[in-house]
Design a protein that fits this description.
Chain A is mainly alpha-helical. The first copy, chain A, contains 5 helices and 1 strand, in the order αααααβ. The N terminus of chain A is likely disordered. Chains A and B meet through helix 2, helix 5 and strand 1 of A and helix 2, helix 5 and strand 1 of B. Chain A binds a DNA duplex (30 and 30 nucleotides) through helix 4.
DNA sequence: AATTTTTATCGCAAATATGCGATATTATAT
DNA sequence: ATATAATATCGCATATTTGCGATAAAAATT
C-alpha cells in the first residue's frame, strides 16, 4: 500500500465539502468532526511511525486487524478512552484529555 | 454540600497511599490513574464552575443525575469520548485528545 | 434537629463498542 | 498481469457503557 489509507486521507478533503460548502451553520459541528479525524489520524500516525501494520498493532494490544482499521476510520465515532489507552500504552504513549473552551485558541493546535 | 464531593476529593489523597507507598513498581500505572482522576475532576470543575447541580447538567445533556455522579467518580474508568463530548458541548467546551510520549514533558501539564 | 437539596450507590434494561473470522478491496512487488 | 501484503468492510457474538428509577448517604438551609 501507499503511505496513507484511503479513509483517513480522503476525510481531510471531504471535510470542507461536506460541512462548509452550502451550510455555514454546520460550521459548529466541524469542531467535533475535526476531533474525530484527529483521533483516527493520531492512531494512524503513531502506528505507522512505529513501523507496524494494523495486524501487528492489533496483536500487540490483543485484538484483530479489523478492529484497528475501524479505529482508524475517520468516520468512526465510538472511541473509548480504554481503547485509546491500550493503543497508546503499547507504543509507550499516553492519552491526554482536556476540556477546553470552544472559542479559546487551544494549547497549540 | 461542601465544595467538593467526597469521591473526587479523597482520590487525590488516596493516590499516593495506594500506588506508591510500598510498591514502587506500580508507579507506572499511576500515570493512568492520574488521567482518570483528571477526567473526573475536569467534569466536576466544569459543572460547578457553571453553577450547575448534577441533576441540572444531566437534564442539559439528556440523562439522569446518577449518570453524572458516576462520571465524576474518580474510580470510574469507562469514559467514552461521546459522553465527554456531550458534557463539554453543553457547557460550550470541547474535548481535546492527544497521544503524547509517556516520558516527554507534555504540552503544559 | 428537622427539612430540603445534593450527591452516591445499586440493580437491571437498552444502547453502543469490542472481538473476531471471512472476504472484498487496494496497494506493493515481481 | 500475477502474486503477495496490507487495509476496508460485513455480520454477529460478547463485553462494556449508558439510561434510569429507587434509595441511601451527605451536605446545606432553616
Amino acid at each position: 500500500m501507499k503511505k496513507k489509507s484511503k479513509t483517513t486521507t480522503d476525510a481531510v478533503k471531504i471535510l470542507h465539502k461536506t460541512f462548509i460548502k452550502d451550510d455555514p451553520k454546520r460550521l459548529a459541528s466541524l469542531q467535533e468532526e475535526r476531533e474525530k479525524l484527529k483521533i483516527a489520524g493520531q492512531i494512524y500516525q503513531l502506528r505507522t511511525q512505529a513501523g507496524l501494520s494494523q495486524a501487528q498493532l492489533a496483536k500487540l494490544i490483543g485484538t484483530t486487524q479489523s478492529v484497528i482499521s475501524r479505529l482508524e476510520d475517520a468516520d468512526y465515532n465510538g472511541h473509548s478512552l480504554n481503547m485509546l489507552r491500550r493503543i497508546a500504552g503499547a507504543l509507550h504513549y499516553k492519552v491526554e484529555v482536556r476540556l477546553v473552551p470552544e472559542n479559546a485558541a487551544s494549547a497549540r493546535g
